[in-house]
Amino acid sequence: MTNQDVFTLIRSTYNSFTNTERKVADYILDHTKEVIYLSIVDLADACGVGESSVFRFCKTMKLKGYQEFRIVLAQSISPDEDTQELTSKITMEDTLEEVSSKILTTNINALTETQKLINENDISEAITSMIMAERIHFFGVGASLMTAMEAKNKFMRISNKTECSIDSHLQIMTAALMSEKDVAVLISYSGSTKDMIEVAKIAKQRAAKVILITRFVKSPLTNYSDITLLCGANEGPLQGGSLSAKLAQLYLLDVLYAEYYRKTGQISETNKERTSKAVIEKML
Q1: Which of 39-43, 125-129, 203-207 bottoms out in mean pLDDT, i.e. has the lowest?
Q2: Label partner for 256 (CA 20 to 30 A): which of 53, 153, 157, 197?
Q3: Which residues are within 8 A (CB) of 179 and not within 5 positions of it... i.e. 6 or more apart?
């Protein structure tokens, strides 16, 4: 199915669409490149329809769901492997100097947009929750798991209450044992990863505070988050795990770390000295 040109598929199926599905089809045909970066919730809002209508639109075209549609769409825009873009701007014809310059620009833009999206009240509330918590659990899957592990590694230098489970089963079990005294920090670019949604549901049922780091202000995960922190990187369906998205997530975590350190003062300073000395003993 992924070898199918999505535009041909939409036009050939158009007469089979309901009136609501045609709204989705028309919007996609008119805003092709923008749709790649939209969540299913964002696309539904843009079309003035419900999420279920977007899903039915995908099923009518014999696609498994919205994520498969985005992949087919991306491949349809750049079907030739010899000229396919490596990212949204870098092409096979670029020189090394052009590649390095474009990557720098992409990363700077991701960080700049993330900084503009920061809400001071949300950051302050998140920090207060983390300071008051008995345990802070970082969650993520795939590339976001790497970010969650990095967050745990960073915070454990100043606090002994951070955790990060790397297996999806262990994550669910961890969430099931959380309480109102715990904080769950979920990291998910799309905000629609099934494993993270399950973790969020269970953590919420356990009355834990849920902090979400994501790209989209509206996504399935935001329905379960108490605080949503937005990162500003654009990532297409063929660019999963892009470093610009990871940098944006790490930037937000760095802000949380700095504020946590600043608000806890002497405790964090003492813990950092202890952990630093412990690591120094391992060095030549």
Answers
A1: 39-43
A2: 197
A3: 134, 206, 207, 208
Local structure of 72: helix, strand or coil: helix
Cβ 229 vs Cβ 114: under 8 Å: no
Query: CB-based burial of residue 284 (10 Å sphere; 0-12 exposed, 13-18 middle, 19+ buried)?
Result: exposed
Question: Could you give the 3-state DSSP secondary structure of residue 163?
Answer: strand
Q: What is the DSSP string of 166-234?
A: -SHHHHHHHHHT--TTEEEEEE-SSS--HHHHHHHHHHHHTT-EEEEEES-SSSGGGGT-SEEEE----
Is the whole-model pTM more than 0.90? no
Amino acid letter for position 202: I
Contact 103, 88 (CB under 8 A): no
Q: Tokens representing 37?
A: 């970066």
Which residues face 163 on adjacent strands? Answer: 137
Tell which residue, 158, 153, 147, 145, has the closest CA to residue 270.
158
Answer yes or no: is pLDDT of 45 > 70.
yes
**Whole-angstrom distance, CA of residue 157 vs CA of residue 177:** 24
DSSP H/E element including 63: none
DSSP, collapsed to helix, strand or coil, labels residue 239 as coil
Burial of 109 (0-12, 13-18, 19+ CB in 10 A): middle
Q: What is the pLDDT of residue 255?
A: 97
- Report how far residue 6's alpha carbon sits from residue 97's, in angstroms, rounded to the nearest whole number: 34
Which is nearest to 150 in space by CA: 215, 140, 159, 126?
140
Dist CA 62 CA 112 (whole Å): 39
